[in-house]
Design goal:
The complex is a heterodimer of chains A (276) and B (254). Chain A has twelve helices and no strands. Chain A has 276 residues and is mainly alpha-helical. Chain A has a single domain, classed as Orthogonal Bundle (ABC transporter involved in vitamin B12 uptake, BtuC). Chain B is an alpha/beta fold. Chain B has two domains: 173 residues, Rossmann fold (3-Layer(aba) Sandwich); 70 residues, no CATH class. Chain B contains ten helices and twelve strands. The chains are: A mainly alpha (276), B alpha/beta (254). Chains A and B meet through helix 7 and helix 8 of A and helix 2, strand 6 and helix 3 of B.
Chain lengths: 276, 254
């Protein structure tokens, strides 16, 4: 019981945070394939963790969280900066650029971890895993809950910003600031998730795509649904991760990678005719 | 009232707009016409504070668009351009409701709902209100965006090439609706138009531009003649008349 309740709470908070993060990023970048995984956010947060482990190895977990958040914000900021310079904002080019950026961060992480003998630790960070979720650690996810609620509070503004810069400015909204606030909120919350449970792949891509397909793009309406759906999907993936190789556990990231990968492929194939 | 004051926009060494003085006042439709790159859209987007001028400014009811709070301007001037996210999955009603955002900040009052309904009526969109934008035709979607501007209920409405991508019937309907904004709702409408004959027929006033400067300004019958058309469009055309309004036979130019 000492691990079961924290674990369940952690799964619910992390799953909803990743889905909301993906949904918000997709709205603000006007691109259905942008999420913390494809904008370099998660890789930047992991790089922050590696550097933290190298230079302040005895730091308490909340300090590591702060470092990871700073790196996630910087990485996402770099993504936005590159996006601004991109002449040809093709639906596929944008996430591709984010993946390349993430690959650079990831290469830096692997290089540093290899040199410092942290490779084993890095693997646990990269593959999301709830088996280590215990008291004293999962509580950090309440920060994520607060950030998610804050995102909901801005939902109407984010939807307007997603319709277009001109549309938003015409309605008196500071477009640049709105995008920065939104991306900052979701970069922070996904970085905290990386610190507590590791990278959770594809959830931020798959869940928002399915939910908006059915319910439309008005964030105020779809955000709560995406949050619940993200939590449920992660709970199911967690059950899967514990039964596939019972009595051993497979990292939940691996399970999601497989399930989410197929779901994502289905979405891409379905929407191919519409996004072009 | 919209007052342009020594407005200049440059990109590097290229001056795309140089408009020392221009005043648009009272209810009515003013058409900005000219060739591509004449500076019409630049003038419009600066007046709608979507673009920063290099120097000079535009005053809307005495409020400087380069310095006044954007939220206050949103209750005075509305601008519609063509670069919105057309694949966004919102219903027509949701989009039009966003037109009330400057007043409601997302919490619509009964008054807001009434104005949204009126805008949907004006654009004859009630039967499409629950449909999603990504399922509509280009003309219907265009009308939905115009309805959002109508719901915004500003005294000044700026429209950048609203007839683009519309077929003849929808273009005619849109122009009739733009006329209603001026005649029934008493708005000052400024519209960038490509077709000089549409401007000649529907506008109260034509401002003709070339190379960033205003070269002619006045009622259609005084602005549209053969020498001016040659100056504005660089085209030798014949100008005739239909029900007292000038008609430019541009399609016969050699």
């Amino acid at each position: 019981m000492t691990s079961r309740i924290p674990r369940t709470i952690a799964i619910i908070l992390a799953g909803s945070a990743m889905a909301v993060a993906g949904l918000t990023m997709q709205t603000l970048t006007r691109n259905r394939f942008v999420a913390p995984d494809t904008a370099g956010t998660l890789d930047a947060a992991t790089l922050g963790l590696v550097l933290g482990a190298m230079y302040v190895p005895s730091a308490p977990i909340y300090l590591r969280m702060v470092i990871a958040v700073v790196f996630a914000l910087a990485g996402t900021g770099l993504f936005l900066l590159l996006l601004q310079r991109l002449q040809f904002r093709d639906i596929v080019v944008v996430p591709l650029m984010g993946l390349m950026l993430g690959a650079v961060f990831n290469a830096a992480s692997v290089f540093l971890a290899y040199r410092e003998g942290l490779l084993q630790t890095l693997v646990t960070w990269i593959s999301g895993d709830f088996s280590g979720t215990l008291r004293g650690r999962y509580e950090l996810l309440y920060v994520v809950a607060a950030l998610t609620i804050l995102t909901y509070w801005f939902a109407e503004r984010f939807t307007i910003a997603g319709i277009g810069r001109d549309f938003a400015v015409n309605l008196g909204l500071d477009h640049g600031r709105t995008v920065l606030i939104g991306m900052g909120l979701v970069a922070s919350s996904s970085a905290v998730v990386v610190v507590v449970v590791g990278e959770i792949p594809l959830l931020g891509l798959v869940v928002p795509n399915i939910v908006t397909l059915a319910l439309g793009d008005r964030l105020r309406r779809v955000l709560p649904v995406a949050a619940v759906a993200g939590a449920i999907l992660l709970l199911l993936a967690d059950i899967g991760s514990r039964t596939v190789r019972h009595p051993y556990e497979v990292p939940v990231g691996v399970v999601l990678g497989v399930v989410g990968g197929f779901a994502f492929l289905a979405i891409v194939l379905r929407s191919r005719g519409r996004v072009g | 009232m919209i007052e342009v004051r020594s407005l200049v926009k440059r990109y590097g060494d290229t001056t795309v707009l140089d408009c020392p003085d221009l005043t648009l006042d009272g209810a009515g439709v003013t058409a900005l016409v000219g060739a591509n790159g004449a500076g019409k859209s630049t003038l419009l987007t600066i007046a709608g504070r979507l673009l920063e001028p290099t120097s000079g400014t535009v005053l809307v009811d005495g409020h400087d668009v380069t310095t006044a709070p954007s939220r206050e301007l949103a209750a005075r001037v509305a601008i519609l351009r063509q670069e919105n996210n057309l694949a966004v999955r919102l219903t027509v009603r949701e989009l039009v409701e966003f037109g009330r955002f400057p007043y409601s900040q997302g919490r619509l009052t009964d008054d807001d709902h009434r104005l949204v309904d009126r805008a949907l009526d004006t654009l004859e969109l009630h039967e499409f209100a629950a449909r999603r934008l990504d399922e509509l035709s280009g003309g219907q979607r265009q009308r939905a965006f115009i309805a959002a501007v109508v719901a915004q209920d500003t005294d000044h409405v700026l429209l950048d090439e609203p007839l683009n991508n519309l077929d003849l019937r929808h273009a005619a309907q849109s122009m009739a609706m733009i006329r209603r904004l001026a005649d029934e709702f008493g708005k000052t409408v400024v519209v960038v138009l490509h077709d000089i004959n549409v401007a000649a027929h529907h506008a109260d006033r034509i401002v003709a531009m070339r190379s960033g400067r205003v070269v002619a300004d006045g009622e259609p019958s005084t602005v549209i003649d053969e020498p001016t058309m040659r100056e504005v469009f660089g085209l030798d055309v014949e100008v005739t008349e239909h029900h007292g309004r000038p008609v430019v036979l541009h399609f016969l130019a050699s």
